[in-house]
Write a structure and sequence with these properties.
The protein has 395 residues and is α+β, with helices and mostly antiparallel strands. Helix content is 51%, strand content 14%. The chain contains 13 helices and nine strands. The longest helix is centred in the first third of the chain and has 35 residues, at 20-54. It is extended, with a radius of gyration of 36 Å.
């Protein structure tokens, strides 16, 4: 019996025929296979997540027709909008402290800023999308009409890109869409859209000279002034409202500016040597007299008092006034130019510019936009919140 059991054991009928060391080897290989499978799954999941996070996000689809009336579909991606977001956020974030002081909140959280129920973030988001739609449509129109940038225009675009990049922090430059390659594409697209827009405006028959004649030379007569002043009021520490200075301080202020006026009358340069300004803030270190300039327009009412303005407007070019006293301050004024065309010319340009824009937008709405359809994508609607996407808190 014992010998039979031995034979069976030796023939493998009583076990698997695998030694202990072989079993351990099989287990080790099995574990390795499981580990490899697990790693592959982790890598695969990571790649899927990375793709989901980094894949191009469509935010706008524009459909229209190109040459020979063939259908064209252009897609605008989230990265294509990043520069527009950056410029808007930079603008409004620069006013943040002012909004906090006046309204007690940021512009982004301020309610009903557009009188249509949108807060600041929502209103700017709409403005950005409206601009993206128009830029894409005008760009598509420029291609259809074979508009091209000249070598000089192309160089100007590159210079604008370089200048923009220099104004960004290292952190901002790493944001997808604010890299130089993307900016180059966006700036070129904008330049083509703008060039096509100018061609459209040129064909609208706008009479610029007739528009300029609608601007009153009298109303926009500019008096270019340089002046020194010292206030008759002061705001004391811990108080929010200004109060009249003491009689002693008022006398000193008038004596100080009277002394300055005597020097100013014979000075070769009204802007130099009349005050001691060691920290270059245009305020005298000892007296508090300050230097400033003013482009006084005929219809302005917020500079000096009516009586003082009348006195100033009567001055000749190069003339230095005596001490002019108002309720709030003492002044010494020099008339640089009593008929400066700057304000009139600027208003003429503004009137022409406004008319061009108004006429173009009318043309765009009635003749250009209607040939295209625009579809704002869900990612923009649901995932994008304007405010601090491009902000560099380390600046």
């Amino acid at each position: 019996m014992n010998s039979a059991k031995k034979i069976i054991k030796n023939q493998g009928l009583g076990n698997s025929g695998v030694t202990k060391s072989e079993e351990e080897g099989l287990g080790s290989r099995k574990n390795k296979i499981l580990i490899i499978i697990g790693l592959c799954l982790i890598v695969g999941i990571s790649l899927v997540v990375a793709y989901i996070q980094l894949r191009p996000r469509e935010i706008l689809v524009v459909k229209g027709t190109g040459e020979n009336n063939q259908s064209i579909t252009n897609k605008v991606y989230y990265t294509d909008a990043m520069y527009d977001i950056y410029t808007a956020e930079t603008q409004y974030n620069s006013y943040e402290s002012i909004y906090q002081q006046i309204y007690g909140t940021t512009y982004w959280a301020a309610e009903n800023v557009d009188n249509e129920g949108r807060n600041g973030s929502q209103a700017v988001k709409k403005q950005i999308m409206d601009a993206l739609k128009q830029r894409e449509i005008l760009y598509m129109e420029s291609l259809k009409n074979k508009v091209e940038l000249t070598a000089e225009e192309q160089q100007s675009v590159t210079q604008d890109v370089n200048s923009t990049m220099q104004n960004m922090s290292d952190k901002q430059k790493k944001i997808s869409g604010l890299d130089s390659a993307t900016l180059q594409e966006i700036f070129e697209k904008q330049a083509l859209a703008d060039k096509y827009k100018e061609q459209v405006i040129a064909g609208l028959g706008i009479d610029e000279e007739a528009l300029k004649k609608t601007v009153s030379k009298k109303d926009y007569r500019q008096y270019t002034l340089q002046y020194y002043t010292i206030a008759k009021t002061e705001t004391k520490a811990g108080e929010s409202e200004a109060t009249q200075k003491s009689e002693e301080d008022l006398k000193k202020a008038k004596d100080d500016i009277t002394a300055l006026q005597k020097k100013a009358v014979s000075a070769e340069d009204f802007t130099k040597g009349l005050i001691t300004d060691s920290d270059n803030n245009n305020i005298d270190d000892k007296t508090g007299i300050s230097y400033s300039t003013e482009n006084l327009i005929e219809t302005d009412t917020d500079f000096m008092t009516e009586k003082a303005r009348k006195q100033v407007k009567a001055m000749k070019n190069g003339q230095v006034s005596g001490v002019i006293e108002t309720k709030d301050a003492y002044f010494v004024v020099k008339m640089v130019n009593n008929d400066d065309p700057e304000a009139y010319d600027a208003q003429c340009e503004q009137v022409v510019s406004d008319e061009k824009e108004n006429k173009f937008q009318e043309k765009y709405r009635t003749d250009i936009k209607i040939s295209y359809t625009t579809e704002v994508q869900s990612y923009w609607k649901g995932r994008v919140s304007i405010g601090y996407l491009t902000a560099d808190n380390n600046n």
